[in-house]
Amino acid sequence: MHAICGDFSLNSSSNLKDDSASMAPTAHYGRFAPSPTGPLHAGSLLAAFGSWLHARHGGAGWRLRVEDVDPPRTVAGAAAAQLRTLHHVGLHGDGAVMWQSQRGPAYQQALDTLLLRGHAFICHCSRSDLAGNGGIHHACVARAPRPDPAVRFRVPPGTRIAFDDSVRGSQSQEVHATVGDFVLRRADGCWAYQLAVVVDDAAQGVTEVVRGADLLDSTARQILLQQALGLPVPRYWHLPLLLDAPGHKLSKSLAALPVDSSRPVPVLRQLWQLLGQAPTALDGIDALPALLAAARQAFDPTRLPRSDILIGAGPPPAGALSAPMLQNPLSPT
Ligand SMILES: [Zn+2]
Predict the structure, then answer these.
(1) Distance between Cα 110 and ligand 1 center (Å)
(2) pLDDT digits (tens, 9 = 90+) for 205-243
(3) If you measure from the C-alpha of residue 123 to the centroid of ligand 1, how many angstroms do you get, rounded to a whole number?
(4) How far is the CA of 8 from the centre of ligand 1 (A)?
(5) Which run of H or of E encompasses 222?
(6) Which residues contact 290 (CB under 8 A, 6 or more apart)?
């Protein structure tokens, strides 16, 4: 396989000192970390606004990070467009934007630490090698060595991670049984999302991860990595997804439409309602700075919806918006 993200390396020039102590957060920080795979759509802006509200309401900082760790999925110009949309709707991060494409040395250092501690191993297994076990890796079954092996995180038998999601309540995952040993660095040389997000959340001092519920399933793997690297485990808040049918993410239709950021006030009003917030709190406010100030003050995290939001044909459930309302003002540009 062609090495898209650089040659495979087991030993970096970075030292292996454990600097987790220096990463300990001294303040509260939230973050928004979009992948630049296209324009920001309603679903991703819902996560951005929810995360911003949560941080600013509590007097916390808010970081921005571009998750361009996966070059084959990165769309040229998408990151700049996403940041421009955030700027237009008044959601400004603290400090410089972090770009994952520039974070290779930090990921290599974390990988070296995991290898040194026996939490990671070199894997020559191909997809077809693992097909017999449903694609889940429990032991190396490679029939031949590969020139481009991956590196996986070792998930011992019986490994189960339980955590309390601040929106959705108690969660648990049998990580060994349902996920198995997961990839940290892919055969094409690219860093896996799970490693990058854990290293970067720690480096940015993130204490509150507020994001879409499509990442709920990744959380147990991220907690395993945090534990193995000696990093603090943030609190997790998983926001509702916008769906057009039960279990069907609205990625192919309405929610994939770019947000019309030239009209930020009506867009934020709709997102405010989707986040279950007090309907009258923003009444009579037409200026963006005043709307954001009122929203950050009135935000109530206990009102966040605990389940996904159905938007589409038929009568909308109480509190949800209908498709036409979403299309206007969240209309294509
Ligand atoms: Zn293997």
Answers:
(1) 20
(2) 999 999 999 999 999 999 999 999 999 999 999 999 888
(3) 4
(4) 16
(5) helix 219-229
(6) none
pLDDT in tens, 268-292: 999 999 999 998 999 999 999 999 9
Question: Which of 242, 241, 240, 222 minimizes the C-alpha distance to 232?
Answer: 222
Q: Report the SS3 class of residue 245.
A: strand
What pTM was estimated for this model as a whole? 0.87
Q: How far is CA 92 from the centre of its chain?
A: 18
Give the pair of three-digit tokens for residue 253.
């239709």
Pairing of strands 309-310, 242-245: parallel
For residues 305 and 165, the answer to whether their CB atoms sit within 8 Å is no
The mean per-residue pLDDT over the stretch 293-315 comes to 85
Q: Which residue has the tokens 């959601």?
A: 91
Cα(125) to ligand 1 centroid in Å equals 4
Ligand 1 centre to CA of 80 (Å) is 38
d(CA 275, CA 278): 9
Centroid of ligand 1 to alpha carbon of 103 (angstroms): 26
